[in-house]
Amino acid sequence: MVAAIAIAMLVIFPFANKLYTYVAAPLLAQMPKGTSMIATEVASPFLTPFKLALVAAIFVTMPYLLYQLWGFVAPGLYRHEKRLALPILVSSVLLFYLGMAFAYYLVFPLVFAFFTHTAPEGVAVMTDISKYLDFVLTLFFAFGVAFEIPVAIVLLVAIGALTPEQLGSKRPYVIVGVFAIGMLLTPPDVISQTLLALPMWGLFELGVVASRFVQHPRGVSGGDAGGGPDVDRASGSARGAGGGPNPSAAGSPPQSHEVGSFGERYVPMRDDEMEAELDRIDAEETTGSSADGVTDPVDEKLGRIHELRELEREDEVRRLLYEVLEEGDEEQRAVAHNILTELDRP
Fold first, then answer.
1. Residue 333 within any structural domain of the chain
2. What is the pTM of this model?
3. Mean pLDDT value across residues 288-296
């Protein structure tokens, strides 16, 4: 990553002065005739373009930098997480660039026109080049982050913190909020405030629409569709997804529900139930097949987990347990959940 930034820096630096002139064009176009930008420090004419070239190198290589970070993180993600992460990474970069372009081409002309034309009489507008660069980089970053609203919404819905319906119900507050943010980030005029507020509102609506594609059903007590077992509120007995009793919990006292890796609910097994399930898997391993004559690869993993636990090889046990949580059925995931709970006990 450092090498990529250094190479991009070497390519951009010879054009640093021209690049600075391009960045300063929105202000220069609004300055009164006979005025120009100034450098108030001795090293500013060199250091300011150098700083701009370095920041530009980082912005240009951002896709590659994120690719390197992705290569580091990806091995620790489930398949469904990888499918979600890749579109989010790509859209994050594109939206950040779009926010910068929006600031440069639409916001800067309005901001600098306002600032230069409101100077008191007798005051010459001669902006310092380093101060100007700091100002525009701040706005670039602010608008780039503001344009990440759809990504933030999708992530919040994907992790279950919010739902599209909840976001839709908060729309009046969002509209007021984006206009308040537009008032704070732009000059005190209605046009520039609206130019920022309307895109942010549109991005919010885009995020709400996109979040519907990543929303997972979340089961709640009383039979809501969640893909996992429910609890009868009157009796406290556990029921499977089909409405029948859960044999693993029959005759057991009501137990608290927990949320697993995929948002489903399950009733934790008692220790004797979990041991019985593991013994069943061991028996199938010994005979070479299950009741229907076909060996379940997930059951094989659970049997292997049982052996590794006796050998105290916890790292391999956890790796296989995570695979069972992703690949197994309801009962297999319940066993994996309980084993993980035991491993996490102090």
1. yes
2. 0.58
3. 56
Q: Is residue 233 part of a domain?
A: no
Interval 149-160 mean pLDDT: 83
Q: Which two tokens stand for residue 18?
A: 């021209």
Counted domains in the chain: 2
Q: Is the same domain home to 143 and 277?
A: no
Name the nearest CA neighbour of 47 among 141, 134, 142, 138. Answer: 134
Please state which of the ranges 177-181, 187-191, 203-207 shows the lowest mean pLDDT. Answer: 187-191
* 3-state helix/strand/coil string of the chain: CHHHHHHHHHHHHHHHHHHHHHHHHHHHCCCCCCCCCECCCCCHHHHHHHHHHHHHHHHHCHHHHHHHHHHHHHHHCCHHHHHHHHHHHHHHHHHHHHHHHHHHHHHHHHHHHHHHHCCCCCCCCCCEHHHHHHHHHHHHHHHHHHCCHHHHHHHHHHCCCCCHHHHHHCHHHHHHHHHHHHHHHCCCCHHHHHHHHHHHHHHHHHHHHHHCCCCCCCCCCCCCCCCCCEECCCCCCEECCCCCECHHHCCCCCCCCEECCCCCEECCCCHHHHHHHHHHHHHHHHHCCCCCCCCCHHHHHHHHHHHHHHCCCHHHHHHHHHHHHHHCCHHHHHHHHHHHHHHHCC
The answer to whether residue 36 is domain-embedded is: yes
- Do 273 and 143 belong to one domain? no
Length of the chain: 346
Give the residue numbers spanning the domain of 22: 2-120+127-147
Q: Is residue 174 part of a domain?
A: no
